[in-house]
Design a protein that fits this description.
The protein is mostly helical and 476 residues long. The chain has a single domain, classed as MFS general substrate transporter like domains (Growth Hormone, Chain: A, Up-down Bundle), CATH 1.20.1250. It is 75% helix and 0% strand. The chain has helices spanning 13-18, 24-58, 62-90, 92-111, 116-144, 147-158, 160-179, 181-189, 195-201, 206-211, 215-233, 255-258, 265-286, 289-295, 300-311, 314-327, 330-353, 358-382, 392-444, 453-457. Helix 3 (62-90) runs parallel beside helix 5. It is globular, with a radius of gyration of 22 Å. The two termini are 32 Å apart.
Length: 476
């Protein structure tokens, strides 16, 4: 086995990670984390396709249907907030694994629900598991990937969300008419066994281990990573890392206080506004897409088919965003995707309002999802880059939690707005939400492209950054 060339007494984990050549090992970590993210996304997207059937079976009003659609988002608020705090306190890996177990069990319990009250309870529990997984996945991956590849890979990871959305639609298309919505939930509990693969392949973040003062463990993990990268890349030696003092753990200040400290206050305000309004608009619309098509006169299978077809626009959307975040930058890509999504959401609503043809509905829907799934890719890339190692998971988790409050409100608001203002009013509301999110990024956002996490963590309120490794992580 090749021997790594670094000494833990001379170079920290960040320096050792940043100098690694991108290799098959990085790709393996990406694939494992992204597949877990994909399975979670399938569960989250399922409600879009089965909400109409649940509404019909229980004879629900539109407002009560909105409550059912929002239940998982309530759980995600709790899960996302808890996950960030737990991951910064106990590590990324155990929280990531337990989140998968929780959403798998809860998905099965949803299949057993014989009343709407029971379904709401299990959907809340399912939301807790999903809310825990999303921010920890982005934090974990961002801390393994070198700066030059970080934005592209995290954006591509988020691309598994539209693939999960499409998969949920395909499963619903074949299973829902024959076996009902409970069978859909039961099937989606099975992928939770993927946690066994995660336990075997994905190590704890050496950046977090070092920040927590567990230097021996961080060095052991780093030696293993370096050996695997050398084998994968076919090299006998690695470049010498920057010589920096070892990071020491922070004492006396919690991660939640840190994200509201002077260095991070502006960033936290920006990401909270961004997540809240972006997710309010997105889930307010997508949770109801299938039900709105059924209300327009389409059969269940037709509504599922057209919703899946519209979602295909998300595939080129996230691929385009994954390219633009490294070429154009995070901030302009985020603003453009939000404004584009808002404009197309408004046009989609107008075509539905005035009885547009199926071709027009699908065309505007494809364009809407192109921009909105591109938006998701930037969100997951941009958010963990705002914070240092000691508060990265907490910052990402609370941003996601605030977004889930928007997710929670969105479907319910649609249920209230729809009878009064119709589908045109619903999509106008979504468009305005995306516009507010874009304004927050434009006014408060910083550019993070090409800057290492440690340099971004050390950035002062002036907004000036330096490229790694000139600045050490002050949060350490």
């Amino acid at each position: 086995m090749p021997t790594p060339t670094t000494s833990p007494t001379r170079s920290n984990a960040a320096a050792r990670l940043e100098r690694l050549p991108f290799s098959g090992y990085h790709k393996l970590i990406f694939i494992v984390v992204a597949i877990a993210f994909f399975f979670d996304s399938v569960d989250l997207a399922t409600m879009t396709f089965i909400l109409g059937s649940i509404k019909q079976e229980f004879g629900l009003s539109t407002a009560m249907t909105g409550v059912v659609a929002s239940a998982s988002f309530f759980g995600m608020v709790v899960g996302a907030a808890l996950a960030g705090l737990l991951a910064d306190r106990f590590g990324r890996r155990p929280v990531f694994q337990w989140s998968m177990v929780l959403w798998g069990v809860a998905s099965y319990l949803c299949s057993t629900a014989q009343s709407v009250d029971a379904l709401i309870v299990w959907r809340v529990l399912l939301g807790v598991g999903m809310g825990m997984e999303f921010p920890v996945a982005q934090t974990l991956l961002s801390e393994f990937v070198p700066t030059a590849n970080r934005g592209r890979l995290i954006a591509l990871m988020d691309g598994f969300w539209p693939l999960g959305f499409i998969t949920a639609g395909i499963v619903s298309y074949f299973v829902l008419p024959q076996f009902g919505w409970r069978a859909v939930f039961a099937l989606l509990a099975i992928p939770a066994v993927f946690v066994l693969i995660v336990r075997r392949i994905v190590p704890e973040s050496p950046r977090w281990l070092e920040h927590a003062g567990r230097h021996a463990e961080a060095d052991a993990v780093m030696c293993g990573i370096e050996a695997r990268v050398m084998r994968s890349a076919g090299v006998a030696m690695l470049p010498r890392p920057s010589l920096q003092p070892m990071a020491e753990p922070v004492r006396g200040r919690g991660a939640l206080r840190e994200i509201w400290s002077g260095a991070y206050r502006r960033r936290t305000t920006m990401v909270w506004l961004l997540w809240f309004f972006a997710l309010l608009g997105f889930y307010g619309l997508t949770s109801w897409l299938g039900a709105l098509l059924q209300q327009a006169g389409f059969a269940v299978t037709q509504s599922v088919y057209y919703t899946v077809l519209i979602s295909l626009g998300g595939v080129p959307g996230f691929l385009c965003a994954a390219w633009l975040v490294e070429r154009w930058g995070r901030k302009p890509t985020c603003i453009a995707s939000l404004l584009g999504g808002g404009m197309m959401a408004y046009l989609y609503g107008q075509s539905a309002l005035y009885g547009g043809s199926v071709a027009l509905l699908v065309g505007t829907g494809l364009a809407m999802q192109f921009f909105l799934f591109g938006m998701w890719a930037v969100l997951y890339t941009y958010t963990p880059e705002q914070y240092g190692t000691g508060s990265r998971a907490t910052g990402s988790g609370f941003a996601s939690a605030v977004g889930r409050i928007g997710s929670l409100i969105g479907p319910y608001v649609v249920g209230v707005v729809l009878p009064v203002f119709g589908q045109g009013g619903v999509f106008t509301l979504g468009a305005l939400s995306f516009a507010v999110a874009a304004l927050a990024v434009w006014v408060l956002g910083i550019e993070t492209r090409g800057v290492a996490l440690e340099a971004l963590a050390s950035e002062e309120a002036t907004g000036e950054t330096q490229l790694y490794p000139a600045v050490a992580d002050r949060s350490s």
